[in-house]
Amino acid sequence: MTGEKLDIYLLPKDFISILKENIALQLGISTTRVKLLLTADVLEDALTLDDSNVGDGSCLTAIVASPVPHNVQVRNGLLHDMLETAGRLRPVRDDPVTTADAGAC
C-alpha cells in the first residue's frame, strides 16, 4: 500500500493468523484482505511464527487485496436469492457436528 513499517510484538508460538489480525487492525481493514510473504513464500495462517521462520527483526511483505466491489456483492446476493427460489440451497445446521455425525474420513 504505502511502504509503511509496522512494529508488531508477538510470541514465537503465536499463529500467522494472529499476526494478520494485528496488521489488519492497524491498517483498518479486514483480515481476509491480508496476505503475508517472507521472501517469496506465502505464510499459512495455521502455522506458528516459529514454524514459518518469522522471528525478531523479520521483515515481511503484506499484500492487501482489494475489497469486494459493491456490484459483485449485489450480484452474489441476487444469485443467492435465485438459488434459494430454485430450492438449490441446503439449510445451515444449527447444532454442532459431533464425532458420531461426522462419519469416517
Description:
The chain has about 100 residues and is an alpha+beta fold. The protein has a single domain (about 1-90), classed as Ubiquitin-like (UB roll) (Roll), CATH 3.10.20.90. Helices cover about 30% and strands about 10% of the residues. It contains three helices and three strands. A three-stranded antiparallel sheet has the order 2-1-3, covered by helices on one side. A hairpin with a 2-residue loop joins strand 1 and strand 2. It is elongated and about 55 Å long.
Quick description:
The protein has 105 residues and is of the alpha+beta class. The protein contains three helices and three strands, in the order H-E-E-E-H-H.
Identify the notable features of this structure and list them briefly.
105 residues; alpha+beta; Ubiquitin-like (UB roll); 3 helices; elongated
Strand and helix map with partners:
Blueprint: H1 16-27, E1 34-38, E2 41-42, E3 61-64, H2 70-85, H3 99-102
Antiparallel strand pairs: 1-2, 1-3
Strand order in the sheet with the most strands: 2-1-3
Radius of gyration: 19 Å
Order of helices and strands: HEEEHH
CATH superfamily: Phosphatidylinositol 3-kinase Catalytic Subunit, Chain A, domain 1
* CATH class assignment: Alpha Beta
